[in-house]
Amino acid sequence: MSRLLIIGCGGVAGVAIHKCCQNSDVFTEICIASRTKSKCDAIKAKLENTTKTVITTAQVNADSKDELVALINSYKPDAVLNLALPYQDLTIMDACLETKTDYIDTANYEPEDTTDPEWKAVYEKRCKDLGFTAYFDYSWQWAYKEKFEKAGITALLGTGFDPGVTSVFTAYALKHYFDEIHYIDILDCNGGDHGYPFATNFNPEINLREVSANGSYWEDGKWIETKPMEIKRVYNFDGVGEKDMYLLHHEEIESLAKNIPNVKRIRFFMTFGQSYLTHMQCLENVGMLSTEPVMYEGREIVPIQFLKALLPDPASLGPRTKGKTNIGCIFTGVKDSKEKTIYIYNMCDHQECYKEVGSQAVSYTTGVPAMIGASLVLSGQWKKPGVYNVEEFDPDPYMEALNKFGLPWVVDENPVTVE
Ligand code: NDP
Questions:
Q1: Which residue in 89, 199, 79, 88 sits closest to 138, CA to CA?
Q2: pLDDT digits (tens, 9 = 90+) for 249-299
Q3: Where would I find the beta strands (DSSP E) of 158-214?
Q4: Any idea what the Cα angle at residue 200 is, between residues 195 and 206, rounded to 5°?
Q5: ipTM score of complex
Q6: What 3-state class would DSSP assign to 4?
Q7: Which of 58, 94, 101, 412 is the most exposed place for a label (fewest CB within 10 A)?
Q8: What is the pLDDT of residues 330-354, one digit of tens each?
Q9: Would you give the distance in Å from CA 26 to the centre of its chain?
Q10: Residue ranges of the alpha helices (H) in 260-343?
Q11: 406 in the Ramachandran plot: left (φ > 0), alpha (ψ -120 to 50) or beta?
Q12: How far is the CA of 365 from the centre of ligand 1 (A)?
């Protein structure tokens, strides 16, 4: 018996809402609140006669703490699931603190305006101190730990697929297969084809910022940074086949480096086709990926936001995308003094996701774990005052829920490793 307030109603939220409605015993009531209320009303109309979950909707500007506090005070949820954009993480956390409400998200904070001098000063110091230059990092949200502890509320950070399931796979491997994990390679393969020469599978602004940034990995206690797409490997993925993959900076490297004792190296690879890379390079070369506003005919526009308006809406890719995703982690470590390697991964079929919830697999593989994370906080299994990443909790109930709610996983005890 619980009430959940979901903020945002885009691709990922659409899936999470469907999944909450399949799990009405936990989610007895949900309120969907977003900037554009008509999207919330449309999904409510689609689902309300198919579920016992009672659905209400609201309009909210999640950049405004006051609006969020007013909404939380009137709806009185047990927890808030943030499925808006990483830009809103801190205002939503502030509103949760003020109202003493648990908080859950899928992506770490990054600023909308990377020219903001206050943010930039902190960012430049972090680049120098820690050695990676991605716009996003956990420091902003980890800084809330004490405040959340004092307020007696839980913040669960990063319960999507990556971060999210990949970190739960790590906790599960450590609990059941290893005494120590030394090497982690996270492999994110999207073997889906949507037929467009160029489109992004989730929010274009966030996606393009991530993949056009410098790469980096964690080795022997420090960050090693690379040029974007500098390190390429080829891997033969179960259910997909051979794909080119590139080393990227990714947020779970930061939390796993902190939370997995004795880890020596953590890398993250994502697959990209040549067409995607050529388009991205070209857009970057002409300045279309810039987050700095430019004047155009007397009006300020942000190039990457204008590009977003031109690209297909990720939510519209569902009916067109065919093929599978395969995301997982290869772990090497020791058990009973013997070295061993295992690979835990999930395969997900774009068309099957579309048949079930009307979305492609990238939204599906994020929306399902968002629902699972929320259900574990609401049921009290993952409730502990403070700010936590998913690998800090018992992975077993999460792994069980993945099997139950559409993301079954396999353990390969003799995998091919990445050079
Ligand atoms: P979308 O752009 O499809 O949806 C974002 C939603 O947030 C939209 O409904 C949008 O409203 C709403 N929104 C944006 N700004 C505000 C605001 N100020 N106030 C209220 N609502 C707002 O994004 P996705 O669904 O693709 O992604 C959602 C989140 O999931 C992102 O944070 C993304 O980084 C994360 N993600 C995490 C992954 C993981 O594996 N961990 C993988 C993929 C995504 P409107 O409709 O008006 O635009």
A1: 89
A2: 999 999 999 999 999 999 999 999 888 999 999 999 999 999 889 999 999
A3: 180-190
A4: 180
A5: 0.99
A6: strand
A7: 412
A8: 999 999 999 999 999 999 999 999 9
A9: 22
A10: 274-285, 303-310
A11: left
A12: 14
Q: Name the average pLDDT for the chain.
A: 96
pLDDT by residue (tens digit) across 176-187? 999 999 999 999
Q: Which atom of ligand 1 is nearest to the CA of 313?
A: 3
Under 8 Å between Cβ of 363 and 329: no
Q: Which domains does the chain have, with CATH numbers?
A: 165-356 (3.30.360.10)
Whether the ω angle into residue 163 lies within 30 degrees of 0, i.e. cis, is yes
Instruction: Output the pLDDT for position 108.
Output: 96
Candidates 81, 157, 131; CA nearest to 375 is 81
Rounded Cα distance, 34 and 100, in Å: 21
DSSP class of residue 415? P
The pair of structure tokens assigned to 278 is 């050529």
Q: With H, G, I as helix, E, B as strand and everything else as coil, classify residue 78.
A: coil
Q: If you take atom 13 of ligand 1, which residue's CA is the nearest one?
A: 84
Dihedral of alpha carbons 234, 235, 241, 247, sign: negative
Hey, what are 65's tokens? Answer: 């703490």
Q: Within 6 Å (CB) of ligand 1, which residues are found?
A: 8-13, 34-36, 39, 60-63, 83-86, 88, 106-107, 160-164, 202-203, 206, 314-315, 366
CB 245 within 8 A of CB 233: yes
- Asked if 408 and 402 touch (Cβ cutoff 8 Å), the reply is yes
